[in-house]
Amino acid sequence: MRPNTLAEAIERVRDGELQDVALAEFIDSFLSAETATQYRSIEQEPEITNDARLDALVGAIAEYLAKQHRLGRVPKWVYGKRRRLDEPWFTTSSTEPAMQEYLAFASPAEFRSRNIFTEERPLRRARAKTA
Amino acid sequence: MLQAFDEIGRAAVAAGTRLQIAVYGGSALMLASNFRFATEDVDVSRLEKPWPEWLRSIVDKLAKKNGWAEDWFNDGVVFHLSALADPVDDHLEFSTFPRGPEPPGLMVYLPSAAYLLALKLKAIRVNDPVRGEQERLDILNLMRVVGVRTAEEAIALLARYFPNSGASAEKQKFLLTYMNKDGAVDAPEYPRRSD
Asked: What angle do CA A113, A17, B32 make, to 5 degrees?
């Protein structure tokens, strides 16, 4: 089964599941859930890991999803100190300065404010919401 | 996934019918490529609504049996498909199910490498913080399979299936030009030659 909460997704990562799979499956769960359930899925703070980028990324994911889907509130834990990187992280394996400039410009505020520089519409999934 | 398809095929036969589907995205690559081994759910072509009872029943049963999400078998991807993709020329028959001597109840088709590449170029999620690296590698491998070497050639392919996206493909051109080109497998195949 997919993780129903972001905290559960991180628990799976801590247990050895691939990070991109666990997070992508959580996002699928979030997108297919009703609005009331969506907030509950990000309400509980995930455990801090030994990966500073992952800890910051889950803060960005929770804040971004809450705002994109107009849930009306953002869980307070996303603003914690561990949810922000000290050094910039560009979510690309390219070392081209042009790519980094693009990401610095394009990154949504919820990511940029945490020193994460990513594409302008992150977390897109192929599936449309189905009835 | 193959065993699940076997069971769907058997259920179709038991219901006295036959189902034809095309499988897209990571599922297609996992089924038929030599460079993608993990996937999520099964994204398929449009299914009649409401689903026939036999299909709903077997899909639910497989979800429970395998601990999969309720919508593991889903046609939500239809929204992203190309109206210009030809059902014959841009798809290939993968297999019938159940495999073996039993009568077939499910025919599975896959998009051609060119069409699958165009779908990935349209979305161009190569910098996504969650799945970007996988998307980048899928694009690099499919470009090799299709024989597309430059951003311009890739955009021409995109325009063949999605003329509007191809006509304003500045983002694709930029990302294809500056993304990391390393990491493709030595001899990517889709479909695998043994299939």
From this structure: 105
The tally of domains found in chain A comes to 1
Find the CB nearest A122 among B69, B78, B129. B129
B50 close to A (CB below 8 A): no
User: Which residues in chain B have Cβ-Cβ distances shorter than 8 Å to A102?
Assistant: 174, 178
Domain that holds residue A76: 6-117
Whether residue A56 lies inside any domain: the answer is yes
Q: Write out chain A's pLDDT in tens, 131 residues.
A: 899 999 999 999 999 999 999 999 999 999 999 998 999 999 999 999 989 999 999 999 999 999 999 999 999 999 999 999 999 999 999 999 999 999 999 999 999 999 999 999 999 987 654 33
Round the average pLDDT of chain B to a whole number and report it: 94
Neighbours of B144 (CB within 10 A): 19
- Residues B33-50: tens digit of each pLDDT: 999 887 668 999 999 889
Residue A71 lies in a domain: yes
Rounded Cα distance, B159 and A32, in Å: 31
- Residue A93 belongs to some domain of the structure: yes
* Proportion of chain B above pLDDT 90, given as a percent: 89
A91/B132 touch (CB, cutoff 8 Å), yes or no: yes
HEC letters along chain B: CHHHHHHHHHHHHHCCCCEEEEEEHHHHHHHHCCCCCCCCCEEECCCCCCCCHHHHHHHHHHHHHHCCCCCCEECHHHHHCCCCCCCCCCEEEEEEECCCCCCCCEEEEEECHHHHHHHHHHHCCCCCCCCHHHHHHHHHHHHHHHCCCCHHHHHHHHHHHCHHHHHCCHHHHHHHHHCCCCCCCCCCCCCCCCC
Q: Which helix (H) or strand (E) holds A89?
A: strand A89-90
What's the angle, vertex CA B128, arms to CA B122 and CA B133, rounded to 5?
90
